[in-house]
What we know:
By secondary structure, the protein is mostly helical. It has helices at 3-23, 27-55, 79-102, 110-128, 135-153, 162-187, 195-201, 207-225, 234-240, 243-268, 274-297, 301-329, 332-367, 378-381, 383-396, 403-421, 426-456, 463-466, 473-491, 493-506, 531-551, 577-587, 589-592, 622-645, 650-671; strands at 59-63, 73-77, 515-516, 520-521, 528-529, 594-603, 606-619. A hairpin with a 2-residue loop joins strand 6 (594-603) and strand 7 (606-619).
Amino acid sequence: xxxxxxxxxxxxxxxxxxxxxxxxxxxxxxxxxxxxxxxxxxxxxxxxxxxxxxxxxxxxxxxxxxxxxxxxxxxxxxxxxxxxxxxxxxxxxxxxxxxxxxxxxxxxxxxxxxxxxxxxxxxxxxxxxxxxxxxxxxxxxxxxxxxxxxxxxxxxxxxxxxxxxxxxxxxxxxxxxxxxxxxxxxxxxxxxxxxxxxxxxxxxxxxxxxxxxxxxxxxxxxxxxxxxxxxxxxxxxxxxxxxxxxxxxxxxxxxxxxxxxxxxxxxxxxxxxxxxxxxxxxxxxxxxxxxxxxxxxxxxxxxxxxxxxxxxxxxxxxxxxxxxxxxxxxxxxxxxxxxxxxxxxxxxxxxxxxxxxxxxxxxxxxxxxxxxxxxxxxxxxxxxxxxxxxxxxxxxxxxxxxxxxxxxxxxxxxxxxxxxxxxxxxxxxxxxxxxxxxxxxxxxxxxxxxxxxxxxxxxxxxxxxxxxxxxxxxxxxxxxxxxxxxxxxxxxxxxxxxxxxxxxxxxxxxxxxxxxxxxxxxxxxxxxxxxxxxxxxxxxxxxxxxxxxxxxxxxxxxxxxxxxxxxxxxxxxxxxxxxxxxxxxxxxxxxxxxxxxxxxxxxxxxxxxxxxxxxxxxxxxxxxxxxxxxxxxxxxxxxxxxxxxxxxxxxxxxxxxxxxxxxxxxxxxxxx
Length: 672
């Protein structure tokens, strides 16, 4: 099939799925047909994306039939856009399959049809974003993606937090939309809204206009990606959305924020001053540290994964900032390596975070609980889900030979190489960034151990965990797809790296010679990574230990273990998620600013007889309070003032009309 035929198949299948969700004769048929259509569209997009990345060809199509006042529609498929088609498809394929079993309980509810239709619209918006090649089409696709995801976040009326999460998400995403619109208008020469025209004239912008464009675009795309301090919507929206939608948001939608930054700063804009690379690098370090520290302290299952997404976005921006720095210093090969590593971690994170959100959804679906404190012992009740989740957690913790290890190892190598090959002014910046990244990697491993150990091991802590049952076959099959990808990308990273080298070359940053054998050797670094050898070593050590333990002829005596004087082991004696994180909270007290409240209930007869004691410990979101607290209070004050105008008096309303008209006339004259 040609590119136009494949695109017609993708968007035609998604449109058919959305329509079928609304008109199918039953809820079950609506679920099956709409999700099958989404699965077909994602499979076609995956094939198209891989083919376009491998060929390196550029396809352009323009039509004035739609959106003609804004320049019509222009679609362009180049290696960078094709790579992000792959990203969306990698998350969309398992999410579509997962929904077949996960959403069965919505068959009898009207909102089930709405969820299925909105998911198809959500996928259509995400596929259109990397294809758009003019401002009108890009903003239209961006808004479809944002609106569909917002409606999915607030789709559950039984979730008390959904409405508040939707408000935060709507405000942040539409604020980013306005910033993006302003950046495009500054870039547009003579109101020519094609990206090609912007590429031709971006170099002629004044320094002030360039600074405004970069700041606005980083704010707009950074808010979508979850860049600190614009991340506040992400830990609220992810827990409120259905789990397969959370997977799409974290693995695909957030990555389109990364796509916007790469498209603008590495494709449309000319080489930028060095300060912008340092700014992006610093924001990446801040984002990674903030995300990992909150993920270790959080107890809500999906909120932990949301903060982990913020942490990994920080890793991506560290590599992007490094690439901008190296391009500014004229080290083209190092810049290409930085961009390639950022894209590789984008792919790796999309794969294992899809797996983890789907596994979290299976756990919540089986236990009806979303807190780590309410889980435990699930490895015996949900063994397949536990094994698949363990694969994602090992990838999240960057344990070899899984895919998360490769991109994090390459990030370390980049920062080391940059300190050797750059100006002395960076001799302090890059080692500090390296130390911060190493701290983040260690804390991420701690968070991963806590997530699996508290959630799946030990004894069940609640009735829901004790009565949990394994997820349906369709959900387990959906989790198996990204789990297999975690292993494949970890064992053979050179397959992805060779394709990504073609993407960086298309952006004007040729990679140079890249060893693509079983071991990975990057130019200018000198380090060698052999994932297959690591896997063989670990597998051999495991098999050897198993053989030795089975070969010993020792008498085994079964008896009760030493129980420290306890009569019986119970969940009350186990480590809790809060207790696991308590030492870290004490170390980083200045960051967490924990709040403790102790309530003691005593007997009325005497204060020495205590009936109950209650401890409430919360982490203060001081960053949100400092940055967004004044804005929220100002908005509430403004709405209170406006509400006083609504007196119900028609005479008062008639008086306000000429006043408003006079104010508009003055504003129009001032604008003229």
